Amino acid sequence: MPNFGCCSDAEGIFELLHARVTGSNHARTRNHHPMTTSVIISTYNNPKWLERVVWGYQCQSCLDFEMVIADDGSREDTAALVRHLAANSPFPIRHVWHADEGFRKCAILNKAISSAEGDYLLISDGDCIPRKDFVQVHMDLRKKGHFISGGYCKLPMETSLAITREDIEEQRPFDPAWLRNNGCPQVPLKLRARGGMAKLLNKLTTTLPSWNGHNSSAWKEDILSVNGFNEDMSYGGLDRELGERMVNKGVIPIQARHLAICVHLDHSRGYVKKELVEQNIALRRKTRSNGIAWAANGIVKSVKN
Questions:
Q1: How far apart are CA 16 and CA 22, in angstroms?
Q2: Quick one: pLDDT band at residue 271, thresholds 50, 70, 90?
Q3: Both ends of the chain: CA-CA distance in Å?
Q4: Partner residues linked to 123 by β-bridges
Q5: Rounded distance, CA 113 to CA 227, Å?
Q6: Using one digit for the tens of pLDDT, what is the confidence trace for 80-109?
Q7: Bridge-partner residues for 128, per DSSP?
Q8: Which of 159, 211, 246, 258 could form a disulfide with 184 if both were Cys (CB 3.0 to 4.6 A apart)?
Q9: Distance between CA 68 and CA 289 in Å, rounded?
Q10: Phi, psi (degrees; rounded to nearest 5) at 59
């Protein structure tokens, strides 16, 4: 954990310092206009995977965005990595951090949402490498009063460990032949369908569009209209619950599981607790049955909407 000495507002100062050292002011000056899109990436103590994810965004066909790293209390090695990655990044990177007090992903995501400069937010995880057209697909599909629901392709650990920067630059993690040769014999249909076929599969799929923490986007005003993530939620459905409240508010999901593509790097989940997952299921049931849109324990701590 970073050492802040006797600072009384460590988290706020940490964010301010990272905004200064990661080049965001330089990028705004260079582009001469405020960012309209913010990519928010959640992370916790997995700098190796986070590095590969940021490499994926640095290879995007569309680079007109800022990145906000929503860090749920990682050690100093993650902060050092962010500084290193931001030094020569084609887009500004900011690091929003709070102390490690257990699983508080919703709280750090709400801080990142509040600090995001873009009016459109693309939210994903620090273990999901985007295909080079990932941001562009979200930008092309965005529509007022809607949110975009993408999917992901899970990779086994052998394949995850094999991925290098060169592989990402050459887009090999999205190549079925490369995946089969590197420990992933079953290549998902999402990675084999392109163009018109991908659009057709989005129409034919029986999977309902939902807010997925690894691959979803929306207008910031729509997320704020439901007060962001529900901080009563721990691991297990916290992202779906946000989407369910947005639907209750009248925001319509757009299916993009075969168009907006990312691959998920394997990792353990030591934070999963059965009782908390069951608690989340009960909260989601209440959200759906009561038509709840506003999270009382969200960005604003208020029951009023």
A1: 10
A2: low
A3: 36
A4: 40, 216
A5: 10
A6: 999 999 999 999 999 999 999 999 999 999
A7: 264
A8: 159
A9: 34
A10: -100, 10
Distance separating alpha carbons of residues 123 and 41, to the nearest angstrom = 6
Please identify which residue in the block is written with the tokens 């007109």.
64
Q: How far apart are CA 79 and CA 99, in angstroms?
A: 13
Name the residue with tokens 């562009």: 136
Which tokens hold the place of 111? 């801080």
Q: Give the integer Cα–Cα distance in Å for 86 and 95.
A: 10
- Segment 62-82, tens digit of pLDDT: 999 999 999 999 999 999 999
In order of their start, the domains of the chain are: 10-290 (3.90.550.10)
Quickly tell me which residue has 């075969």 as its tokens: 258
